[in-house]
Design a protein that fits this description.
alpha+beta, 7-stranded antiparallel sheet, 8 helices, 29% helix, 23% strand
């Protein structure tokens, strides 16, 4: 007597769920396929064949078309595969051809970035080449910039410096006349829109020989207007000049120093 084991009801039920689940998953995946893959499935069904038989007919492994449709490998069918498959299915090879947009995934072109572009929420401030900008005997109104840029948070510029990003420039201190507040090699941030010493403060000026930092204040009731230029280093004297003779470049609003 031959006994055939069919398995318990639980096993049969589980096996049926797996089969139903796989079929439902395939239907779901089919809805997400591109037009060529959906068309191929339709042609296979209408041609009373299957993906395994069609794969072998074009001299590929048995899982070739299944992988092409459901895994995207290969991404497109080669020309010889299209022709052999079209002959097997009795259709035009062009029905199995992807257009260029499907054959190649379009990648977004990178947005051109300016050489000194700042990330969102920050502004780039140029550093000025003092020697190149000053030139021999005169201050250049169009200062030469170095390759260095400084990034400052926009809230800091707006609320602490009370300035606009386009009005800021970074300049390196040269000399010891403002020690101990400013030392040679320090970098100071200046606001070039503020060129009136009211209230008094630290300004960068052109003294006829170069750019220097001085504490400048207006002489009250002077006519014509005069200003006092003070050095914090006691070895340097203070002096007065007519305001029209003093070439103010900008007010210092921030300093950077290497410790």
């Amino acid at each position: 007597m031959v006994v055939t084991y069919l398995g318990c009801r639980c096993c049969v039920s589980n096996r049926w769920w797996v089969i139903s689940h796989n079929m439902g998953q395939r239907r779901k995946n089919a809805d997400q396929l591109d037009p060529v893959r959906r068309r191929l499935l339709k042609l296979v069904a209408e041609g009373r064949t299957n993906l395994r038989t069609a794969s072998l007919a074009i001299e590929r492994n048995a899982a070739y078309l299944h992988q092409f449709i459901y895994r995207g490998t290969p991404r497109v069918l080669a020309e010889d595969d299209r022709e052999a498959l079209a002959e097997h299915l009795g259709c035009c090879p062009d029905l199995l051809r992807h257009d260029r947009s499907a054959r190649r995934v379009a990648r977004p072109k990178p947005t051109p970035v300016a050489p000194h572009a700042a990330p969102t929420g920050y502004s780039a401030v140029p550093e000025i080449d003092v020697r190149a900008s000053a030139g021999p005997g005169a201050w250049n109104d169009d200062p030469e910039q170095t390759s260095d840029m400084w990034l400052f948070a926009d809230p800091l510029i707006r609320h602490e410096f009370r300035a606009k990003p386009e009005d800021l420039q970074m300049i390196t201190v040269d000399g010891d006349s403002m020690e101990p507040l400013l030392s040679s090699g320090d970098r100071i941030l200046i606001d070039v829109s503020r060129q009136v010493p009211v209230p008094p403060g630290i300004f960068v000026i052109w003294d006829g020989m170069g750019l220097v930092a001085k504490h400048i204040e207006h002489v009250p009731n002077s006519d014509p207007p005069k200003v006092v230029l003070k050095s914090l280093n006691p070895e340097y004297d203070s002096y007065e000049r007519p305001a029209e003779e003093v070439r103010l470049v900008g007010r210092a609003v921030w300093v950077s120093r290497r410790l």
